[in-house]
Amino acid sequence: MPSTDRRRLPAAERRAQIAGAARAVALRDGLAAVTLRGVAAEAAVAPALVAHYSPSMEALVAETFAGIVAAELDEVRHLAGGDAPDALGALLRTLLGGGREDVTAVWVEAWALGRRNAELAAAVRDQMDAWHVALVELLARGAADGSLTVADPDAVAWHVLGMIDGLNAQALVRWRQDDARVALAARAVEAMVGLPRGAVAAPERATVDAGETP
Question: Could you report the per-residue pLDDT of 142-185, keeping only the tens digit for each?
């Protein structure tokens, strides 16, 4: 274990150090590992110092979750530019195409831990609402310019997010291949927004596992 960091840091820097350590622990070992001792070990400081700057571990867990998933939303907003069909394709490939298991695990664990952590539950609801708003905006933009046919963007957004969440949870246990998940989700989204088959998923990504109905 690294030696304890006894340097005197300004309060803002120390808080940032502790927040960064909590984020690293959550992404590597899960939200349940964001404990007083776990964060202290990661930051190489005494547990008492973590307790001084984060007296409520429930609050630190909630803040850590919110920081991780809000950063992902910012990233996806940036990637999902362009017209609405292309943006939907980028969103599905980014979220379902593999390589984000650490963030997916944080989401899944937050839903479970939020049953007994009211602050975490509130943070989860807030972030779910933020993702919903972002997707409604995308769908409404497509409906406005005629590239999508969406009578109820609010309902479609909930359907799409629920599908993404479910497929990503399945991916944690390696059920199906990443490309298959992208293709199947794209097919459902295309049907929901009035697009022809293949309009959302790029051809090289729109593949399915052998044995699936094409």
Answer: 999 999 999 999 999 999 999 999 999 999 988 878 888 899 99
Burial class, 212, CB count within 10 angstroms (exposed 0-12 / middle 13-18 / buried 19+): exposed
7 touches 48 (CB < 8 A): no
The b/e string for 183-194 (b: 16+ C-beta within 10 A; e otherwise) is bbbbbbbbebbe
- Global pTM reads 0.85
> Using CB atoms within 10 A of its CB, is residue 159 exposed (0-12), middle (13-18) or buried (19+)?
middle
pLDDT digits (tens, 9 = 90+) for 89-136: 999 998 998 888 999 999 999 999 999 999 999 999 999 999 999 999
Q: At what angle do helices 101-113 and 57-79 cross, to 10 degrees?
A: 140
CA distance 164 to 132: 12
- Residue 21 neighbours by CB under 8 Å, 6+ apart: 39, 40, 42, 43
